[in-house]
Amino acid sequence: MAQHTSGGADAKSAPPPPEPLGHPAADSHTHLDMQDGTVADAVAAAARVGVTTLIQVGCDLERSRWSAETAAAHDAVWATVALHPNEAPRLGAGLAAALDEIDALAALPQVVGVGETGLDYFRTGPEGIAAQQHSFRRHVDMAKRRQKALVIHDREAHDDVLRILDEEGAPERVVFHCYSGDAEMAETCAENGYFMSFAGNVTFKNAGQLREAVAVAPAELLLVETDAPFLTPMPYRGRPNAPYLIPLTLRAMADVRGTDPDELAAAIAANTARAFGYAPAGAPGAAPAAPGDSPPVGRDAGHNLKR
To answer: In what order do the strands lie in the sheet with 25-30?
Structure first.
């Protein structure tokens, strides 16, 4: 989760839809609860441009509950649940109980990830670091016990995030949301099999470091996201972001890699299904599994589904 940037007179208007992709794609990280309009409208707008799967991300207790309920009600949506790193210091003595409830939500079959968790040293000062790191370690444990993907928010904390993953033992599937490292860190992530999800800021003029990371990241570990309503890709920076704008970021990534956008969309769709352990919508079987991966889940794999 990021923040809006001012965009002048058009800042409140939704950008026009881009040209549809030739292959279904997935948005690996979005916040439908923070966007205008209904979930059904967002899903339909995304589908019209070829974005057929949305990962709805929770970042506090209320939003995590909403994410799980929304994923249960919409076939195109899967959920993740967590306490954002900036939530941990704010909760104080209530942190333990909140973590316990996130753990319970993580057991639901429509919940495919634990996140966004991690560390954020940009907004939280030194006094909040201990709480953030404790919360992060608890989320790592949840992801491993629940066999769910771990979705990491890492802002100005690269070394500590990688260190804690090493100390705790990373889950089988780790996703660096809104990847913010450089090419060297991308190589470290690749060595560990961590997925790297790139957002609309990869299109920004000053994002050369991110484009270098896109260029060196292995194709099988690449994901794309909106982090909507934040980080709207160029040329609409500052206006509201939404899953239907995924084609803009995906095409920019393809351009950096010298790859056909539809081929990249196909690879990223398979990567997203593998990262989050779900069977792609409409597929008779499961997403291709990597060695050591848990089998993909279906929505009828548990209980408490809201249909």
So the answer is: 25-30, 51-57, 77-81, 111-120, 149-155, 174-176, 195-198, 222-224
**CATH number of the CATH domain containing 161:** 3.20.20.140
Angle at Cα 14 formed by Cα 9 and Cα 15, nearest 5°?
A: 90
Q: Is the pLDDT of residue 120 over 70?
A: yes
Range of the domain at 246: 21-276
Per-residue pLDDT at 220 exceeds 60: yes
pTM for the whole structure: 0.90
* Overall number of domains in the chain: 1
Q: Quickly count: other Cβ atoms within 10 Å of residue 62's Cβ.
A: 10
Model pLDDT for residues 65-110, shown as the tens digit of each residue: 999 999 999 999 999 999 999 999 999 999 999 999 999 999 999 9
**Which residues face 152 on adjacent strands?**
117, 176
Does some domain include residue 123? yes
Residue 112's DSSP bridge partners are none
